[in-house]
Write the structure tokens for this entry.
Amino acid sequence: MTTWNETHGIDSMNKNLVAAEYAVRGKIVARGAEIEKELAKNPDSHPFDEVIACNIGNPQALLQKPITYYRQVASLVNYPWLLNDENVCKSFPADVLKRAKKMLEGVGHYNKTGAYTHSQGYEWIRTNLAAALEKRDGVPAHPEDIFLTDGASPGIKVVLNCLITNPKDGVLIPLPQYPLYSATLTTLNGASIPYYLNEDKSWKASIADLQDSVKKAIESGIKPRALVVINPGNPTGQVLTKDEIFDMCKFADENSLMVLADEVYQNNIYVDDMEFVSFKEVTAKHFPNLPLVSFHSVSKGVIAECGKRGGYMEVCNVHPEVKDLILKLQSISLCPNINGQILVDLMMTAPDEKDESFELFNSEVSELKESLKRRARSITEGINAIPGISTQPVTGSMYAFPKLELPQKAIDAAKEQNLAPDAFWCLQLLENTGVIVVPGSGFGQAEGTYHFRTTILPPEELLEKVVSRMAAFQKSFLEKYS
């Protein structure tokens, strides 16, 4: 048996890091991994034949096919010598070859496709990205304001690292929230200032609640520094209107807050009369001095290349010395990875209608979007048909955040096991069905309420199985604990 040196045991480590929690990959997910190994050894070890991971927005893990155009261009940039082979080139559309060659001109040499880039990312990609953002928002964008990142998360961490100077600095975060924010603030020894989204009003935020949160924070000695907004929402799936964005920007402006706009689900909207409006568009037109950092990623949308780790942040109306500080933090990690940078460029500039690739690209993207719309409706209807579980319509992002009505007997049983009641339910769901979801307590929720987050990402036939297993489990759960 190994004897560990307690000089470097857990009690000697960073207490803020020990205290941080990230439920999306927490204990229930770890148990799911154990069950997968148990099933591999003995297929009869559990009352199901597979584990279905609905805990995280990871489309390709649930077998979503990558978009052909993105992979074709990226493959040629990664191994450009393929462009010297006439037979290989015949298997690629002409515009794919042209796009790859243009990218390689930006790289500078075939042998440099694995070299470090500028810490802010390739300038030519940032120039392309600025043009794409101008087209999206109808307002100017500048390459020097764009920082390419390894997904959105590192950019968010960099900005929070700049903002938190002591334990009395706080950031307004929505509850429910993506736990990256609370976990990062905990590691930085900063304060989370919650503002609650109203479930009965389709998870909308209210300015009155925001004002109340700021007031309570100031009264407790916390200085609000920034406002986090996730649009479309994670885990709640709501989509903000332009008027709602205006009101939140006005609130931030009046309270001297920097806005951190998490917009990674901007291409995941499932209701025809809803559209994505960026915070950049509203601030540029109405609040030109409001500090804003907006984030996007190749992990979501239809590109869904989570493991490639590509993203960017656009830093607007931020003091030049603070931008230098952001660059300094980026420089410590040297540079964002090249594959991620290439995919950001591809995500923001799709093939033109006249291009040879366009028909297949448009077909794949349209088919995927329609399937996601069907899945959003299907999971809403399916869950709302289960006694004791209800969900608001999934209008955006990749998740539903259903409410659980738990019997007191189940709540008591959870306490006996030192588990949050919704974590107890989620663990029982996993052990009985193989379906992994995340307890709402990991995202924050109104006191006395219980939820869980599930993705809508399993293929349509598998999603039906998820809902069916959940319904059968809930029936037996209620029979046991009612």
In short: The two ends are 45 Å apart (CA to CA).
